[in-house]
Amino acid sequence: MNKDNELTEKLNNMLTESADQEVVIKFLRESNYSKAESIGIVKNTFGISYDEAQDMIHNSQTWSDVKERDAKIMNEFFDILEKLGSEESDDTMCK
User: Are residues 28 and 38 in contact, defined by beta-carbon separation less than 8 angstroms?
Assistant: First the structure.
């Protein structure tokens, strides 16, 4: 059994025992998986979309200590993308 299958089996067993998704999320963080890695693992384990997994991780109690910081970073990122898109549109119109 490969490492990914072992992890998925362990997480499914945890869910069977407690039926609490937070237990799985906490286990991942305590096992030193990053927030991004945890999103991917939760997505695959629960068979949900990336957006659902991201929402689950971002809004979890386990990751609540970095929720505000991460939301600020994402908002700044989208602001930059929007600005770049606006500048690109302006450049296209000037040509």
Answer: yes
In contact, 56 and 42? CB cutoff 8 Å: yes
For residue 66, CA distances in Å to 32, 43, 48, 70, 76 come to 15, 20, 23, 6, 15
pTM of the model: 0.72
Q: What is the pLDDT of residue 36?
A: 95
Handedness of CA 82, 83, 88, 89 (dihedral sign): positive
Q: How many CA atoms, within 13 angstroms, populate the side-chain half-sphere of residue 72?
A: 4
- 3-state SS assignment for residue 94: helix
* Torsion from C-alpha of 41, 46, 51, 53, nearest 10 degrees: -50
- Show the tokens assigned to 10: 């362990």
Q: How far apart are CA 58 and CA 91, in angstroms?
A: 36
d(CA 61, CA 27): 12
